[in-house]
Design a protein that fits this description.
Length: about 800
């Protein structure tokens, strides 16, 4: 018998209940699950063997997921615990309609849904992602910087597919990912902890300590505290070796420097600590206020990528400078919810303060790109005689630092109609101030003194971007639903938004901007200052028609729009018409179904869709357009045709099966023709597949519950398959093992299987697991660069155990 969550609902916005959504497997196995489960009738099930409802807030009001005409998957607290989902990577692999690429560190992913990917490089000055992320009520979407919060004591994760712009706003163009935490409960005390350890084939060990406590303070107030400390051992080796190193650019004398001091086995390590506190107070029978704070610090050493060309055995890379990252954030939140008359009112305010820093080795770049020898290490060695007595440039060793400060405040007011009438509506207003300060510096410790001391913030910096990017937004949104009959309803929605984007600061080759006697000055090689603003005001729309064929079958059709905000390019020497780029719009045409079959034992949901992507924002690197920068242009159009479906089957009172699939065919529908003056005017021809999203992704899971004496027990296997894709939208060129203008490489398909089992006795239990059972090496992202061939990958086979207790 399926068990309900024990936590009672505090309000219409803050609660979700039991679900058995588990997304899995390939099309063949998914079809077998569906046909096999529906055909197994020999054993009459108990009458109460039904899939219990999932309450979600995908429409900004609490509803049974089966009643919401949106293609979505929800992972509730039981599913998150059963599938051992603790990180972004875990749930991204579990959700068949979600794909991602990562830049080599946890917390550096770009998320995709339904094939809408432009191949943007994740530049801090570029376009935002096409999928938005929410932490409770606050959007936390950032460029190549997903908020990788630890998943523990989380109520549910909702993945809403297709444009969600009318209710959720900017960057919810192709979908939305929402993490909803558990809230304080004044009805009873509860607490628990989890302690586990793990090992990795060919790598180091790790541990996890997690705990929560829910404390009623009075009959109408409660405090919920959550904490975690995670340590994950590495498995990628930084192998010793040397690289070519020019000493004198003019003479061709060379030397070799080594990374002997940096070489280390299992050098990619992660430590994550965090805490969450929430205070909930029932002001009276109708009004509740909740104040919360969430803190997390995630520190890494090493990288999560390996060099499969020079070290085909895998798990190895060669780096010559320390690699590290630090991602620290604090979120403050305040929510006021209440009811009056036939309406519900919500105010949700949040402040996110996030700092990230990265140190990245660039020695391979200096070794491969010959102009670095002349322009960076010693400018005078190429253009002018050396000053008398000045030592030569001593090294082409190079590394980069990236420091980011994010500050985002959001406020939302919502009014929702209640009651049983034919008219239902949600209206609201949204306000956001978003500031991103970033300092990126490329450093060569061996610069000649005349270059290194020319007034820079620090010596040896040969290129930097020091800028502030801001996006302020005001929006008014609403959806109105009218019930034509008991079974047929229609919805219209709209969002008007007004945005102001600004960019200020400097970018360029700093050493040469401060000493005009050293080099007379070429605009391409000076630091360029920008201080510009642009504003956009527009409205996007949504329309839906829903037919409840019966209590268990719902069909719907939807037309909806989503958008990404515009912005400003960091190169001030561009023509005026190219300084800013405009929002791009994704229009979705969708037919969906939600069904509950076999007397409540089977849930089968899905959608077929066609999406038209117009005015696509595309990042262009072309030295004839801008020698210093990659810039964003609105270039062309694309189309996506797809199908997604998920099924959950309660085969018996002990066996639960689930599967999900996602198919996408996505390609450009016109040439991407770069602006006049580009070195290669035609960048992407018509019919080019969109990158980083596979044509097919699928998942499958099976969980069997049984008893061992007086102990409860379970065994569970899950399997995910991700099809092949390409690393870039640009046309493929030559093999990456050889020199050339390599920009687009194949990303191979991969399968990952996880095995889990455990026992429990009332309030305690023990779980054991083996993840990545077949020791698959996944291509999460093949870097489209020719100077260092690396692939961001997953952890090898790992195993461990966890002890948990609840009070």
């Amino acid at each position: 018998m399926q068990q309900c969550d024990s936590q009672p609902r505090r309000s219409a916005v803050s609660h979700a209940v039991k679900t058995h959504i588990q997304s899995r497997r390939s099309q063949y196995l998914a079809a077998a699950v569906v046909s096999g489960a529906l055909a197994m009738p020999q054993q009459a099930p108990a009458q109460d063997l039904v899939i219990e409802e999932i309450v979600v807030t995908a429409s900004k009001r609490a509803e049974n997921m089966q009643d919401v005409p949106i293609a979505m998957v929800a992972l509730n607290s039981d599913t998150l615990r059963e599938q051992a989902i603790t990180s972004f990577e875990d749930y991204a692999l579990t959700l068949s309609n979600v794909s991602f690429k990562s830049f080599g560190y946890p917390g550096s992913a770009t998320v995709y849904m339904r094939g809408a990917a432009d191949g943007g490089d994740g530049n801090a000055s570029g376009s935002t992602p096409s999928v938005c992320m929410y932490m409770d009520e606050q959007p936390v979407t950032d460029i190549a910087a997903n908020l990788d919060v630890h998943i523990y004591d989380v109520n549910r994760i909702e993945a809403l597919a297709g444009p969600q712009g009318t209710l959720f706003g900017a960057s919810c163009q192709a979908g939305a990912l929402r993490i909803i935490t558990n809230k304080p409960d004044s009805s009873e005390f509860s607490a628990g902890f989890d302690v586990g350890g793990s090992g990795t084939d060919g790598g180091d060990t790790g541990y996890a300590v997690e705990g929560f406590v829910n404390m009623p303070i009075s009959d109408n107030a409660a405090l919920r505290l959550v904490g975690w400390s995670i340590s994950e051992g590495g498995w990628i080796d930084n192998v010793p070796g040397g690289v070519r190193n020019y000493v004198l650019s003019n003479t061709g004398q060379t030397a070799v420097f080594t990374n002997d001091a940096m070489a280390k086995d299992d050098f990619n390590e992660l430590d994550k600590t965090g805490a969450r506190a929430a205070l909930g107070i029932d002001l009276n029978d109708n009004w509740t206020v909740t104040a919360g704070i969430l803190f997390q610090d995630m520190e890494t050493e090493g990288v999560w990528e390996h060099d499969t060309v020079n070290f085909p055995e895998g798990g190895k890379i060669q780096r010559f400078n320390p690699e590290s990252s630090d991602d620290e954030f604090t979120q403050f939140s305040l929510t006021l919810e209440g009811e009056f008359g036939n309406h519900s009112f919500v105010y949700a305010g949040s402040l996110l303060d996030r700092d990230t820093s990265y140190v990245t080795d660039y020695s391979a770049y200096g070794d491969y790109i010959t102009w670095v020898d002349y322009y960076s290490c010693h400018w005078g060695g190429y253009y002018l005689p050396l000053p008398p007595g000045e030592p030569e440039c001593t090294s082409l060793n190079e590394f980069a630092t990236r420091d980011n400060e994010y500050e985002r405040s959001t406020h939302e007011l919502r009014l929702l109609s209640l009651g049983d009438g034919s008219l239902h509506y949600t209206v609201g207003a949204f306000f956001q101030d978003n500031e991103h300060k970033y300092l990126q510096q490329w450093i060569q410790p061996g610069m000649a003194p005349s270059v290194a001391v020319t007034g820079q913030q620090r010596p040896d910096v040969y290129f930097r971007t020091d800028q502030v990017r801001e996006l302020d937004q005001v929006a008014v949104f609403g959806e109105l639903t009218f019930d034509f009959t008991d079974n047929l309803s229609g919805t219209i929605g709209a969002r008007w938004f007004d945005e102001e984007a600004s960019l200020s600061g400097v970018v360029g080759w700093g050493p040469y901007a401060f000493d005009t006697t050293f080099y007379p000055g070429d605009p391409d090689f000076l630091e360029n200052f920008v201080n510009s603003k642009t504003s956009t005001s527009d409205t996007i729309f949504k329309a839906n028609l829903t037919w409840n064929v019966s209590d268990d079958v719902m069909l719907y059709v939807t037309w909806s729009e989503g958008y990404r905000p515009g912005g400003i390019n960091r190169e001030p020497l561009l023509p005026p018409e190219a300084i800013a780029w405009e929002p791009d719009i994704l229009t979705n045409y969708e037919i969906g179904w939600k069904t509950t079959l076999a007397d409540g034992r089977v849930r089968l949901n899905g959608a077929a869709y066609f999406m038209d992507w117009d005015n696509i924002q595309y990042t262009v690197y072309d030295s004839d357009l801008s020698f210093c920068c990659g810039n964003v242009y609105n270039l062309s159009t694309a189309e996506v045709t797809g199908l997604e479906a998920d099924i959950t089957v309660l085969a018996t009172d002990a066996l639960t099966l689930s599967a999900s699939v996602s198919f996408n065919s996505a390609e450009t529908t016109a040439d991407f023709v770069l602006p006049v003056g580009a070195g290669n005017p035609l960048s992407v021809p018509n019919g080019t597949p969109l990158p980083n999203v596979p044509d097919f992704k699928g998942n499958l899971a099976a969980r069997y519950n049984f008893s061992i004496g007086e102990l409860g027990a379970y065994a569970q296997i899950s399997y995910s398959y991700t099809g092949s894709s390409r690393s870039s939208i640009r046309p493929a060129t030559v093999d990456r093992r050889f020199p050339g203008d390599n920009t687009n490489f194949p990303q191979d398909s991969f399968s990952i299987a996880n095995l889990r089992a455990g026992i429990d006795k009332d309030k305690w239990g023990v779980d054991v697991f083996v993840n990545n059972l077949t020791d698959e090496s996944a291509d999460y992202f093949v870097h489209p660069r020719n100077y260092e061939p690396t692939v961001v990958t997953n952890r090898p086979r790992n195993y461990g155990a966890k002890v948990w207790m609840r009070f």
